[in-house]
Design brief:
Elements: H1 3-9, H2 18-21, E1 30-31, E2 37-40, E3 43-47, H3 60-73, H4 89-102, E4 106-110, H5 113-124, E5 130-134, H6 139-147, E6 151-155, H7 160-177, E7 181-186, H8 198-203, E8 211-215, H9 230-234, E9 242-246, E10 256-260, H10 262-271, H11 273-276, H12 283-298, H13 300-319, E11 332-337, H14 340-353, E12 356-357, E13 359-361, E14 370-375, H15 383-402
Parallel strand pairs: 3-12, 5-6, 5-7, 7-8, 8-9
Antiparallel strand pairs: 1-2, 2-3, 4-10, 9-10, 11-14, 13-14
Helix pairs in contact: 3-12, 4-12, 5-6, 13-15, 14-15
């Protein structure tokens, strides 16, 4: 069969919905200033789909620094990869500040979070090593696992008993191969909002010899007394061997970093292919990240405002009878029962009649018959936004119960 003929016949699990979904359910265009209220298809909507957790995207100090850095350096400097010609004192300055903030000896600044995690895994392990990972790990972790030429074992999500069983298997194999063990989990799981059981995983180090890699994309800036992440929340930051976080969430920017002991970070500097063969993070983004980190550290009221909105939204939804699962973070999943067509009708109703923009997760991402509407509260939202949304969700849920959204076909927007 011709390669393109195969693709034409099988568009993939999500691509099969492209005709109905493109531009509305998938690849929608939110326009205007990044804020709780933006424009969608010519009308103002209240959006709950932006990971701008502590409201830095349009903070006046951030905007001013971003603009000035772009004027001073342009978007090209520095040219080349860090190892070859893309190193600057500002990159090093940001790395030092990040390492200090998360309580590690050193940090390495990465150009993108997704490819950064893929490359971290690729660099840390070889064919003799064994990886043990959570079943609900993010796609970037799964793609990193695909590069691993050795053995890997998965444990059911947050099931510590099953994790220990897999560690027993991994220990036998690692000893046989003269290899090591890397356990990978997340601080905050971005779909369901629950936390990785970092404290219980760390306790297993007393029985098993392994190193722990934590992806804390959604925890950095939101969790812990200072915002230093989920490790700080559990008071086990020192026991996280390799800590990873992205700027795409609380920092409202581009880039990421990995932090660990200095010799580990130096090893990654010289062995991460995604950094050796890719352009350095542009200077305006580095200088902008320095300002964002400054605000994150020195303005705790931003994180406090976030949690005021989070608590009000989650409390109100729970009191209204909604199932939010096990979330312990700002990520707010609303679980409903229904088909994919019902889910698309709900989203259309929210967007067209309530002017609320939020995202639907349905099969094949989650099991058939289940729907998940994921809300992302931020420090930029207001309690008025929260109360309006809760009222709207109550009405939508009643319509769902009444069968108003039943359909055999996925909704299609003309």
């Amino acid at each position: 069969m011709d390669l393109f003929e195969k693709i034409e016949k099988d568009k993939g699990p999500l691509g099969q919905y492209m005709e109905q979904a493109h531009g509305y359910f998938a690849f929608p265009k939110l326009e205007g200033e990044i804020a709780p209220h933006m424009m969608f298809q010519g009308k103002k909507v209240l959006t709950w789909s932006l990971n701008n957790y502590i409201g830095l995207a349009n903070h006046p100090e951030v905007r001013e620094v971003d603009a000035q850095a772009a004027r001073d350096y342009g978007l090209a400097y520095p040219m080349g990869a860090r190892m070859m010609s893309g190193q600057t004192s500002k990159h090093e300055e940001l790395e030092g500040q990040l390492a200090e903030f998360v309580g590690k000896e050193d940090a390495f600044l990465l150009n993108y979070g997704y490819q950064g995690m893929v490359s971290i895994i690729d660099a840390l392990v070889n064919r003799n090593d064994v990886i043990v990972y959570d079943s609900e790990a993010h796609a970037c972790i799964l793609d990193g696992l695909r590069l691993h030429m050795g053995k890997r074992y998965v444990f059911p999500h947050n099931d510590i008993e099953k994790l220990e069983k897999q560690l027993e298997r991994a220990t036998k194999l690692a000893e046989k191969n003269c290899g090591g063990i890397l356990v990978i989990t997340e601080g905050v799981f971005g779909m369901a909002g629950d936390l990785g059981k970092l404290d219980q995983i760390v306790d297993l180090k007393q029985k098993y010899n392994f190193r722990l890699l934590v992806d804390d994309a959604h925890g950095f800036g939101t969790m812990g007394d200072t915002g230093a992440g989920t490790g700080e929340h559990f008071q086990v930051q020192d026991d996280i061997d390799v800590y990873f976080a992205t700027f795409a969430k609380s920092m409202a920017g581009i880039g990421s970093f990995v932090a660990s002991k200095q010799y580990i970070v130096n090893y990654l500097r010289y062995n991460m292919r995604s950094q050796t063969f890719a352009k350095s993070l542009p200077m305006p983004m580095v200088i902008g990240a320095i300002k964002r980190l400054e605000l994150l550290k020195n303005k705790p009221e931003l994180r406090e405002k976030l949690w005021t909105i989070v608590n009000a939204l989650q409390k109100g939804l729970k009191e209204a009878g909604f199932n939010l699962g096990n979330t312990e973070s700002p990520v707010t999943p609303v679980y409903l029962s229904g088909s994919v067509p019902e889910g698309t009708n709900i989203i259309m109703d929210l967007r067209e009649n309530y002017n609320i923009f939020c995202s639907l997760v349905a099969y094949p991402v989650i099991p058939k018959g289940e729907l998940l509407i994921r809300l992302i509260p931020t420090a930029a939202h207001t309690l008025e936004d929260v109360n309006y949304t809760i009222r709207a969700f109550k009405e939508v849920h009643q319509k769902l119960e009444n069968g108003d959204y039943q359909s055999d076909n996925i909704a299609k927007v003309s």
